[in-house]
Amino acid sequence: MKKLELREPTIAVLFLIPAIVGLLLFYYYPIGHTLALSAYDLSHTAELSPERFVGLQNYVEVLQSKQFWSSIRFTLFFTLVAVSLELTLGMMLALSTYWVWGRLTGILRAIIIIPWAIPQIIQASIWRWMYNTDVGLIGDLFVRVGLTDAPPLFLSNPSLARWAVIVAYVWKGASVAAIFLMGGLALVPKELTDAAKVDGARSWRRFWTITVPMIMPTILVTLLFRTMAGLQIFDIIYGLTNGGPGTTTETLSSFSYKYYFKFVQYGRGSAYAVVTFLLVLIASVIYIRRVQPHFRFKGLGS
Amino acid sequence: MSKKQRQRLHIALSVVVTIGVAFFALLPLYWIVLTSLKAPGTEFRLPIRYWPDEISLEPYRTILGPDFNVQRAILNSLIVSTVTTIGALLLASLAAYTIARLRFTYKWSSLLFIQVASMLPPIIVIAPTFLIIRSMGLLGSLPGLIIPNMIYNIPLSTWLIASYFAGLPFELEDAAKVDGSPPLRIFRQIMLPLAAPGLFSAGVIAFLGSWGEFMLAFTISMGLPEAQTIPVAVQGYTMAMQRQWTWVAAAIVLSLAPVIVLVMVFQKWVVQGLTLGSAKY
């Protein structure tokens, strides 16, 4: 019996085809399709017929709308504040797992990882209850601590709603950042982290002059991932405020989704989606250029 | 301060730090569990109570009763997450093996092609995906949800599995090739078992990711109970029952129980996977 001889490049193609086709169908083709949709005037239809072609008009209208500017401003504000908080808290959490008494390390890590596991939309439901005006936990804590006389209207006061969304989001985001940063810290020689326990003031300087530069690649990647997550934020907005009150907490993604599936305006929705995409793209290009010196694919082989 | 005193102080402070972290990290969960154990109606009683006065299982009885479809939604989620994970691992392990082990010209561009996809925001693909699933006649069905989900998990899974393949010695395959084993057998019987830790990490992360996925699940389910996953159902209850928070809380607890157990049991794999995933660059 003669064996069918397959050469390595042929096998490679055969093995890669399923994944490549899947990605083409559900990632790359949809991007093209979304770009196309954004050039048409589509109300309650997704049919790209020539007479509906409007070129860049959707973008012009979007750029002229106040809604767009308020949503892009909130998206950027959200990302900036959330990422800064996530990184700071995440670093504190990650460092604490190295600092604490050995027997508590395991417990502390287990606690830190739990918020990561909570789906964002479920998290939105939980925080909605915590922010409840009448019997919410957060409002009650505010009153008890003496910050306010009555529980604040977290989700119906525009300026409070913005912060309410951010705090709920950071609760989980800090946990994600901490997990990444713990991975980075694991690469720092143990003498450095151990020595940091002993002398208080000097350890702070050592942290900035030795630890931070050593784990810079991890810090930059954490920044990149969290920035991308922030720019495309959707679930927590949808579940917690649904963009409200009014449109104060509406983000690019949440607006896009509304145009798609509530108003069934595919053209307008796509224009918002494309802007989200561009922001994410710009952010990743900036970061990747910064990270370039560390760029490598470990062990890709010869 | 003597050495012993310093050590005692360190232990004491460690306990304080751990309790502090636990307080912030677990407070929302504590609060929702507490609410889910209150007799319906009493959750709006003032002043609010931080400890359970009396435990009532009524919310669970109601939410698991005939008026709701929590069991169905959890079953749907289990099906979606399991099939998604198996499918993603299959496609990703083939791709990962190719990229990490085989010699061919377009190695770098294939890797780029696969990894760039993981950077795309879901909103840019959601409308065409909806249209594709509609044209396949799969709206409101689990396959309509599973197929895209499977693809979404390919990039990270490929990465994780490839990192394991890349670390294996090349002599393994060379020996098998000399024996004349066909490539698929080399892949399945020799290489795949050796990459098991990578598969495992990727699997746990894919499972948890698809368990919590919302945008696609919500869009494709079209509000039909037979296609709703548990996050979609919980979101629906939250919107519909603003005066019945004990019921909603019970549904939330039920939706979280499986993932929390999973994360606690497989903590090591999750952390390993995420760390490796962040070491991409």
The CATH class designation of chain A is Mainly Alpha
- As a whole number of angstroms, the C-alpha radius of gyration of chain B is 24 Å
| Overall mean pLDDT of chain A | 87
Instruction: Please give the radius of gyration of chain A in angstroms.
Output: 24 Å
Oligomer: heterodimer
Shape estimate of chain B = flat
Predict the CATH topology of chain A: MetI-like fold
- Tally of individual helices of chain B: 14
Element order, helices and strands of chain A? HHHHHHHHHHHHH
Brief summary of the model shown:
The complex is a heterodimer of chains A (about 300) and B (about 280). Chain A is about 70% helix and about 0% strand.
List keywords for this structure.
heterodimer; A: 302 residues; mainly alpha; MetI-like fold; 72% helix; 0% strand; disordered C terminus; B: 281 residues; flat
Describe what you observe in this structure.
The complex is a heterodimer of chains A (302) and B (281). Chain A has 302 residues and is an all-alpha fold. Helices cover 72% and strands 0% of the residues of chain A. Chain A has one domain: MetI-like (MetI-like fold, Orthogonal Bundle). Chain A is globular. Chain A starts with 7 loop residues before the first helix and ends in an 11-residue tail after the last helix. Residues 295-302 of chain A have low confidence and may be disordered. Chain B folds into two domains: 3-62, no CATH class; 68-278, Orthogonal Bundle (MetI-like fold), CATH 1.10.3720.10. With 281 residues, chain B is mainly alpha-helical. Chain B has helices at residues 3-36, 58-63, 70-101, 107-117, 123-135, 142-152, 154-166, 171-179, 183-194, 196-212, 215-221, 230-240, 245-265, 267-278.
